[in-house]
Amino acid sequence: MGGEMIKFSDGSHEHDAYLSPSKTGKGPGVIVIQEWWGLVDHIKRVCDRFADEGFTALAPDLYHGKSTKEPDEAASMMQALNIAHTEAILRKAIMTLMVNPATEGEKIGVVGFCMGGQLALFAAGSNPVIKACVNFYGIHPNVEPSYRTLSGPVLGIFAEHDDCVDPELVKAMSKELTLLGKVHEFITYPGAQHAFFNDDRPEVYDAAAAADAWKRTIRFLKENLR
Prior knowledge:
Keywords: Hydrolase. One of its GO terms (molecular function) is hydrolase activity. This protein is α/β, with parallel strands linked by helices. The protein is built from six helices and eight strands, in the order E-E-E-H-E-H-H-E-H-E-E-H-E-H. It has a single domain, classed as 3-Layer(aba) Sandwich (Rossmann fold), CATH 3.40.50.1820.
């Protein structure tokens, strides 16, 4: 890993996060939000990949040190999240990233996967400093983002064969964003499955779709954060 674990406080509690500073010395800040598995090595490697592209990436640990490889346990951990508390953690993580010496500029991006995709939209709607949001097949039944208060465009990355994300919900989201005048682009990858970006899960990983989604993500963030 190219980054390191750090601690930050929300005023009453300390939290852990993985920080990967830009390999160029300084770069735009990107918050990376975990899947329902926890802050696992895959998410840390994603942060390192952002650092290689010139961004400074921070992934807060929303499960307080816990992680799992079991779907049932992951679902329980996701459902147990206190959304108000999670919002406070994300808000402080954004502030922590903004004041980091390796972060450049006042625009922050947010990228989330699965559970984190929905939380990325939630964070973007709650924090006007976020000027670009990337939602990888986001899902969380208890999170309702505020699209009206988004301060930047949204890139949505979805899979054709996704048992977790209903295509009709994706269409409805796009329609609502359009009605609100919010700039967005949604991409659905033919043949891909939910979590196709996670190269630690060979049963669903799609190398071609993941590579294209990564290129789109980097281009989107560079266009909107620099």
